[in-house]
Design brief:
This protein has one domain. The protein contains three helices and four strands. Strands 2-3-1-4 form a four-stranded parallel beta sheet, covered by helices on one side. The longest helix has 20 residues. The relative contact order is 0.33. GO terms for molecular function: ATP binding. This is RapZ C-terminal domain-containing protein.
C-alpha cells in the first residue's frame, strides 16, 4: 500500500451541463448544495473570495467536504494507487464546484501531493 504522503491527488471541477468526466477514481456531484447569493455573482467564479465566503461557511458544504475526505481515506485504504483523480461537479462548473475544489486543495495539500 502506498504511503499517504506519497499519493498524488489530481482534483478538478466540471459542469454537468458539459458532460461527466470519465477515467476518474472518485466523482462527486454537488448540484444539490445551495447556490451563492452574492450580488452579480456571474462576473466571478469559485476562486473569488466573495463566492468562497458565501458558500464554504454553509453547514452543507462543510459536511460534504468531510464526506469527501472520508471517502478519499477509505479509497486509499482499499486501493493500492499512487495517483488518485477526484472530480467534483455542479451545473455549470464555475461557482460551487470551483469553490469546493479550491478548499479541498488547501485541506488535502497538507497530507497528499496535489497536482
Amino acid at each position: 500500500m502506498a504511503q499517504v504522503q506519497d499519493i498524488n491527488i489530481k482534483l478538478f471541477s466540471f459542469g454537468h451541463s458539459f458532460g461527466v468526466p470519465v477515467d476518474v477514481d472518485l466523482l462527486f456531484s454537488i448540484r444539490h448544495l445551495p447556490v451563492t447569493n452574492v450580488e452579480n455573482y456571474q462576473q466571478y467564479d469559485g476562486r473569488h473570495q466573495r463566492i468562497q465566503n458565501e458558500l464554504l461557511h454553509l453547514t452543507e458544504y462543510e459536511s460534504f467536504i468531510k464526506t469527501i475526505i472520508e471517502q478519499l481515506k477509505n479509497f486509499t485504504n482499499e486501493h493500492n494507487k499512487n495517483s488518485i483523480t477526484i472530480a467534483i461537479g455542479c451545473e455549470q462548473g464555475r461557482h460551487r464546484s470551483v469553490a469546493l475544489v479550491e478548499r479541498l486543495g488547501d485541506l488535502l495539500g497538507n497530507t497528499y501531493n496535489m497536482n
